[in-house]
Write a structure and sequence with these properties.
140 residues; alpha/beta; Rossmann fold; three-stranded parallel β-sheet; two-stranded antiparallel sheet; 7 helices
């Protein structure tokens, strides 16, 4: 999987985005609100695509989060540095929109420390979401 993620994200081989789509679609076919973890704008510019939108693009996604730029990419940080990363997500929709659903599933490619998912969850709760939040990542 390391080689696959490097080829896909590191080298920008977008053709690989379809590799897991059948499995992903089967696993999430009954999910209600699928919220992708967004890339930082500078990573999108470098790659020319958002890897999470590519992986999960076969689904009806709700892009309710925006990520602000951070000093260094997560991949370049130690475990301790990742755990200390400050909140970098902002919710783009009003509380009324959030609470039209009872469950949100956050979607990401790689789970290392969980900090990214915790920050996304915290941002949604701070914006007023009152339901259940779970997550699906491709790699742990």
């Amino acid at each position: 999987m390391k080689a696959w993620i490097y080829q896909y994200k590191g080298l920008g081989d977008y053709r690989l985005h379809v590799a897991f789509q059948d499995l992903i679609a089967a696993r999430l076919r009954h999910a209600t609100a699928l919220v992708p973890i967004p890339s930082e704008p500078k990573h999108f510019e470098l790659r020319g695509f958002d890897p999470i939108l590519g992986l999960f693009g076969c689904l009806r996604l709700r892009p309710w989060l925006r990520k602000t730029a951070t000093e260094r990419p997560q991949a370049q940080k130690t475990r301790q540095e990742r755990l200390k990363t400050p909140q970098s997500f902002h919710v783009l929709v009003p509380e009324q929109t959030l609470n039209r659903v009872r469950q949100i599933t956050l979607l990401d490619d790689l789970y290392t420390t969980g900090r990214t998912l915790y920050h996304a969850r915290d941002a949604l709760v701070a914006a007023g979401f009152k339901g259940t939040i779970d997550a699906l990542t491709l790699i742990r």
